[in-house]
Every structure is written in structure tokens, then in C-alpha cells.
Specification:
single chain; seven-stranded mixed sheet
């Protein structure tokens, strides 16, 4: 089938909040589907496979999206925001084993600072566990896990909120449960667990929390991914005889047994939002924002930093060029809600993205040092604006043939 060249979205002009993009709430499912059919495939396809990166110079529309993202990135020198532009807009995102874009595979400059090389190749060989006791990056928020994948814990007046659940029960034990006491946390106080998406590295420790520590905790997930989780458990049970008893139980333990609250799309749309009262004095905003998977969820939760109340955006995962058009729609939706809520802090549960792991380690060594995760409302808006424009550019580049999906 010959594809006609289409444009994705409307250009976001440089500058905080100066957006000409229609809200995701005004875009019907049919319109979103049309955009996806014109370019990258559905969300979740090849989600774990890095894309190819630049093959040729941008054509005008992709360049305009890139220019808008660059202008947002250059407002200040926040390294997390600058990383967002450099990797998603300029270099691509691929492993050394997926070369073939015409670029030589280069090496890291400094793995203590970033796992993504100047040309965009991701190196995982340097990943370490987080320091003992996790990293307290706000007065009441911690990151546990590794330099690559982790979970966030927020302590509220009514108990603990967990965001994501690591890869396996063993990871949950060694990377969080064994570390919690050193941070002054009791896993039995967990009241809500938000699972950002259904990939194994974000849900594998969920059952251990429910079964052994917090049986009354409520588990929250985007509805499409909740359905996928249910289907995975059913499929595994049908194929039980293909495994030894030990293998079967180990696999089953890594698939969440139940999702209590599902965040659904608004009728006729691909995105949705649910306000969840996680305590008498605390409300979280859970947003269905497809991209990395069809049911990816982002969460805004109140936090405290230096004695003042803030709003933290927790993002779970990133890449998927196959769904770049949908990802741009979802990011616009999250950006709008983040602005409405006054969100001013941002973290990704993949700590290598944004090179966040290096900043977390620096905060562990010196809690009074610079904290680029505290971006201010304008910074969070720019951070999301860059990501949205990057994915408009990526979708257009794939159509133009100047980039390719691996």
C-alpha cells in the first residue's frame, strides 16, 4: 500500500505553554487511529526494541518539530531536560548491537554520568544497584532499584504509595524490602501500588507486596494493560503443562494476580484520567497515556520538598517509535493535566532515562546539592513539551524515510 505523506498534530511553538496543539480530549479515537495508521503501528509493538536513528537530514516539518523542542531545551541548563532533547530528538535510541543506520557505534563518555553515548547508543553493562537505603530525592519520596529500573515510594500522612514494582520477587526483596528499614520505611504501610505499565520489569514484584506485606493495598493500572495482565495469567495457566512446577510458579509469581482499580480511556478517546483518594488528605491523579504500551499510566502525586508541598509526575518507561504519533497525543494530555495540577517535579522509573541515576547518586552523597528533578511548573511543562515534539518529529521522520524503526 502506498502511504500518502501526512502531518502529525500541530506544531508546538517554542516557549512554555505556547501550544497550538489540539487537546487530546478534542481528538476522537477515529482521528487518533487515523494518525496511527498513517505512520507508526499500535502502541506496544516492539516496545523493547530500540529504534534506528537518523539516516538523512530532516525534512521541513520534522525539522520544525525538532526546532520547537530544541528551543524548549535551551531555556536553561537543567541536565535532565537537556538529555530529553538530545536523546529523543537528535540521536535516536539503540543498542550497540542494533547498528546499521550509517553511524559508527561510539563509546560512552562517562558511565558514571550517562549510559547513552553521544550518538545515542545505550550501554547497560554499567548498571549497579542503588546505594543502600535507596535515594531520598524529596523529603517524603525515595527511589529504590538499580541505575536502570526502579520504583518510587512516597510517604503520605495515611501510608505509603508505591509506583512500579521491579522485575522479580527477588528484586523486590533485595532492592527494596531489604533496604526499606534503612530508609525508615515499613512495607506493611503500603496502601496503594500504581503499576505504570505491563512490562515485566515494572510489575514482577507486585504479588510479593500483596501476598506478604500489604494484603489490603489497592493496585492501580491502565485498563488495557490490566486486561493484558489478566490474559497473560490465563494463557500461562492454559500452558501449565509446558513447564516444571517450579518454572510455572516462578512465572506466575511475576504476573500481578489482581488489579483493583483500572484507569480507562474516556469514551471515544485513547486517553483518560481518574482521581484516586489515596488517603484522607492525599489525592493522586492517574492518567492513561498510551505510548510505551497500550495501557501506559502516568501518575501525579503530592510530595514535600524542603518543607513545602509540590506535585510529582511519575513516568513509567519511554521508548516506542512504533507508537510515536499516539505518544505525542498522550504526552499533550499529561502535559495539560500537569499544568492544571501545578506539577513541578518529574521522575522516570527508568533511572537511566534523563541520566537520572547519576543525579540520584549525587543527591545520596550530598542531599543539599542540586536537584534537577525539581524543575518548577515551567520546567515540567518544557520537559513534557520536548517529549511531545520529539515524538511528532519521530513519527514524521519515519514517514519521510529519514529515520527508521528497527
Amino acid at each position: 500500500m502506498t502511504r500518502t505523506r501526512r502531518e502529525f498534530g500541530t506544531l508546538v511553538m517554542a516557549g512554555v505553554g505556547a501550544t497550538a496543539i489540539p487537546s487530546a480530549l478534542t481528538m476522537s479515537t477515529a482521528a487518533a487511529k487515523g494518525a496511527e495508521e498513517a505512520g507508526p503501528a499500535t502502541a506496544g509493538a516492539a516496545a523493547e526494541v530500540p529504534w534506528g536513528g537518523p539516516l538523512a537530514p530532516d525534512k521541513p516539518l520534522a525539522k520544525a518539530y525538532d526546532d520547537a523542542a530544541r528551543a524548549l531545551a535551551e531555556v536553561d541548563d537543567n541536565p535532565v531536560i537537556r538529555w530529553q532533547y538530545r536523546v529523543w530528538c537528535r540521536t535516536g535510541y539503540r543498542s550497540p548491537g542494533s547498528a546499521g543506520t550509517g553511524q559508527p557505534v561510539d563509546q560512552l563518555v562517562d558511565p558514571a554520568v550517562d549510559f547513552v553515548s553521544p550518538k545515542g547508543f545505550l550501554y547497560k553493562d554499567y548498571v549497579r544497584p542503588m546505594p543502600a537505603g535507596g535515594v531520598r530525592f524529596l523529603d517524603n519520596a525515595w527511589y529504590f532499584g538499580t541505575d536502570f529500573t526502579g520504583l518510587v515510594i512516597v510517604r503520605t500522612p495515611d501510608g505509603l504509595i508505591m509506583l512500579d514494582a521491579l522485575t522479580t520477587p527477588d528484586d523486590m526483596r533485595t532492592q527494596f524490602l531489604d533496604q526499606a528499614a534503612a530508609a525508615g520505611l515499613d512495607p506493611r504501610d503500603i496502601r496503594y501500588v500504581f503499576l505504570g505499565h505491563a512490562h515485566p520489569d515494572h510489575v514482577g514484584g507486585a504479588n510479593l507486596i500483596r501476598d506478604d506485606y500489604a494484603p489490603r493495598a489497592k493496585f492501580v493500572m491502565g485498563q488495557p494493560d490490566a486486561a493484558a495482565i489478566k490474559a497473560q495469567r490465563a494463557d500461562l495457566k492454559r500452558r501449565k503443562d509446558e513447564y516444571t512446577k517450579e518454572e510455572y510458579l516462578a512465572r506466575l509469581a511475576r504476573i500481578p494476580s489482581r488489579i483493583d482499580i483500572e484507569v480507562e480511556a474516556y469514551p471515544g478517546h485513547t486517553v483518560g484520567m481518574k482521581r484516586i483518594q489515596v488517603g484522607r488528605r492525599t489525592t493522586a491523579v492517574a492518567m492513561l497515556a498510551p505510548g510505551h504500551t497500550v495501557g501506559q499510566m502516568c501518575v501525579i502525586v503530592p510530595v514535600v520538598h524542603q518543607g513545602k508541598t509540590h506535585k510529582l509526575v511519575v513516568w513509567s518507561g519511554n521508548d516506542n517509535i512504533e507508537a510515536a504519533a499516539q505518544y505525542a497525543i498522550s504526552t499533550d494530555f499529561v502535559q495539560g493535566l500537569a499544568g492544571q495540577e501545578g506539577a513541578d517535579v518529574f521522575i522516570n522509573t527508568h533511572a537511566y532515562q534523563g541520566a537520572v541515576y547519576s543525579h540520584l547518586r549525587a543527591l545520596k552523597a550530598d542531599p543539599s546539592g542540586p536537584n534537577p528533578l525539581v524543575m518548577g511548573p515551567a520546567g515540567v511543562q518544557r520537559h513534557l513539551g520536548i517529549f511531545g515534539n520529539a515524538h511528532r518529529a519521530l513519527a514524521q521522520r519515519v514517514l519521510d524515510g529519514t529515520w527508521k524503526a528497527m
